[in-house]
Amino acid sequence: MTRRWVSFALIAPLLAFLIVSFIVPVLLMLARAVTDRDLDRTWPASAAALRTWDGEGLPPDALARTVAREMLAAHRAGTLNRVANRLNYDLVGSRSLLYTTADRLAAGAPGETLADLARIDRRWARADIWTVMRHADGPLTSYYLLAALDRRIDTGGHILRVPREQAVFVDIFLRTFKIASLVALFCALLGYPVAYLLASLPRRIANPLLILVLLPFWTSALVRTAAWAVLLQTNGVVNDLLQYMGLVDAPVQLIYNRLGVYVAMTHVLLPFFILPLYGVMKGIDPTAMRAASSLGAPPLLAFLKVYLPQSLPGVAAGAVLVFTLAVGYYVTPALVGGGADQMISASIAFYTSQSLNWGMAAALSLLLLLPLLLMLFAGRTMVRTVPA
Amino acid sequence: MLMAGTRLPLVEFRGVEKRYAGGSAAAVAALDLAIGRGEFLTLLGPSGSGKTTTLMMLAGFETPTAGDIRLGGRSLADRPPHKRNMGVVFQNYALFPHMSVAQNLAFPLRVRGVKGRKAADKVVAALTLVKLDGLGDRRPHALSGGQRQRVALARALIFEPDIVLMDEPLGALDRQLREHLQIEIKRIQRALDLTILYVTHDQGEALALSDRVAVFAGGRMQQVGTPGAIYEHPANAFVAGFVGENNRLAGTLVARQGDRCAIQLAGGQIIRATAADPLLPGDKVVAMIRPEHVQPGAVPPACCSTLEIDVDEFAYHGDHRRIAANVPGAGSLIIRVPVDMAAQRGDRMTIGWCIDHCLAFSASEIEPGKTS
């Protein structure tokens, strides 16, 4: 009992640090995917009134009056920005509508009825701005998650696909998972023989080779990616070599397309595949292969029946690790990929730091996180069913 | 006198040598050895003596740097391990951890194209042979050490190999289990008329199991012969010291007549012994006498040599007692005496031995630290 408390006391500082600096912020961030408090915090009375409105056609004058009053108050308090931004996600132009209206109200224009507002700007007489405000009345929303799946909810509560020209996220998600899967596959094909070699060589030779594998770890991914840009460019080393060997007549496009992304990401992530696999392979009894051979199995058969099955937990661990890291890649596709090679992290970064739509960023992150958690769980199960 | 007469040699080592790149001494040098069909031959020696290397060369996992190894009269030089048809039992058993016991046993059958009913029957028979009936579905890690050893043995036998090679197969087991499995291995060898090449550093095991024992030291075979010949007539001081217990008394040869000689110990006492090496008066020698051949107290007159000792320690061993004694100026002695004998620390006693049992070897031959 005391030992348990001592153990707990020893990890407590780290645990507290993680909770404060990582777990809580992540949860708060992810919560933004399903909460919608901009309007209801800034305009509480309007939010309450919006919730009681049936949403049919145009709102009553009482609601218009409440909105006009709180709009003016928020404008004076300098908090109108929050509502304006929020409404602008759903309806482009809402931002300018709110600011011009607030300016006119501040200048003394009347705001007692819907007709008064419509006189300030005709858009107040249209249903869409009111529908959008009703959707934004909080505190919970399905809006971001649906939008992240290229879906939206109509005024009648039906889930619809967004028009084809606006649907981007499903494609980007599929592309992200495809790139990550292929990178994991390439890492497996390239990394397995290397890990095998490292595990079977005597330590004296294996250790320097292992350092070569680790070397890229000590270089930043950014630098390595930039190096690939130099190597793969139209007049780069690789193209020169291909032409010199007569394999191609003219320079091939090796970069700023999907090929460049695969090459650079596979290179950057390869150590993450090799190291766990190497660890597992080191644990495989080398005499098992000798035993297989003494029992009559030719080398290839011995490998397939005895070595390979025992190394699969390492392959699974490496593949899961590479896939998880690859799915979140952002810098590499941005530097060596084309416009059609951007992955979901680029969208998340866009919403986080450029459009400042954190709800959307959180929804995309959540949708990225869920399959990864499933994947880690599946990987764990797989490792457990193949005893080392 | 040493070869089992009627048996044909199945395996022959001819002038076999193994040197590792960068190693100064040969791991195995100038090895000539024949193994008869149906014979149980043990390679006995301390670690690093070349016995395991010899076994691995026969299995095909090491390549001789000189000489030739033959199986049934045909050279094995170009035959890879998987075509040698030899069952190998490894020291750590080398069972396949991802396969059940039955799958482990079926592995050599499967790679030979034996499948289905026939393979299943053989697996059941093999499990019965090693007394593991009903454990076919277990994974190796769910077995005890002794059970794993049995599975490894069954797997090495199931495909009816020409010879079974066993590399310290009982080394990882406790003493009682080891003795039990020794009997099992011997029973199976007799039942199936197996040819076995066995490697061990345990001289008791070698003596108990083998038809013949080959003693290795420093990469060279020191002596090969029946357990009795090895124990009673060691070819040199190393064999005398390594196989069984032996006492060593250092001295100088003072006289020799035929194979009888007289030795003056460092403390001045004269003892008599049988010269096992070509020795001349003045040579530094070591006289070796086994604890059970030393007789305490009154000594019969003929062909005997006597010596005065001081009792240092008197220890009870259940079925016998041991005296650790000091020979003034010449070292210490262990004497095995009946359990009913009484003595105590500080006693002075006279001991004696039959000259035939005390062997004198040239002192230069003995490697330091290699005697028991």
UniProtKB/TrEMBL annotation, chain A:
It is found in: Cell membrane. It is a multi-pass membrane protein. GO terms for biological process: transmembrane transport. It comes from the Bacteria. Keywords: Cell membrane, Membrane, Transmembrane, Transmembrane helix, Transport. Its main location: membrane. The chain crosses the membrane at residues 6-31, 179-199, 205-223, 259-281, 315-336, 356-378. The keyword Transit peptide does not apply. Residues 173-379 form the ABC transmembrane type-1 domain. CDD domains: TM_PBP2. Pfam families: BPD_transp_1. GO terms for cellular component: plasma membrane. Belongs to the binding-protein-dependent transport system permease family. CysTW subfamily. This is Putative spermidine/putrescine transport system permease protein.
UniProtKB/TrEMBL annotation, chain B:
Residues 11-243 form the ABC transporter domain. The keyword Transport applies. One of its GO terms (molecular function) is ATP binding. Gene3D superfamilies: 2.40.50.100, P-loop containing nucleotide triphosphate hydrolases. PROSITE patterns: ABC_TRANSPORTER_1 (PS00211), ABC_TRANSPORTER_2 (PS50893). InterPro entries: AAA+_ATPase, ABC_SmlMolc_Importer, ABC_transporter-like_ATP-bd, ABC_transporter-like_CS, Mo/tungstate-bd_C_term_dom, P-loop_NTPase, Transp-assoc_OB_typ2. GO terms for cellular component: ATP-binding cassette (ABC) transporter complex. SUPFAM superfamilies: MOP-like (SSF50331), P-loop containing nucleoside triphosphate hydrolases (SSF52540). Keywords: ATP-binding, Nucleotide-binding, Transport. This is Putative spermidine/putrescine transport system ATP-binding protein. The lineage of its organism: Bacteria, Pseudomonadati, Pseudomonadota, Alphaproteobacteria, Sphingomonadales.
